Amino acid sequence: MNTEEYAEIFKALSHPIRLRIVCGLLKKDSCNVNTMSEKLNIAQPTISQHLNILKNAGIITGCRNGNQICYKIDNPAVRKLFENINICDSCS
Prior knowledge:
Layout lengths: L2 H10 L3 H13 L2 E2 H8 L3 H13 L3 E6 L2 E6 L2 H10 L7
Antiparallel strand pairs: 1-3, 2-3
C-alpha cells in the first residue's frame, strides 16, 4: 500500500461510528445493516452511509446473502492496525 491509500483509510476511520462499525466487524467477522443498526442504535440509512465510506476506502466488502448484504473487513492492513493499537477494547 502507498501513502495515499493509507491516508484514505485513516480518513475513512476518522469518525466514531465508523470506528465502532469496524470494531464490531472485527469481533463478529461479518454482519448486515439491520443488525448493525440495532446494535449501535443508529438509523439504518446512517449506517448505510458510513458503510459506503468504508467500502470506498477499501476497508470492507459486502456479499449478498439472500436479500441482505453482509459486510466484512477485507483489508489485512486494517486488521493488523486494529490488533496493534488494541482500539476495539474501548469501542462501545
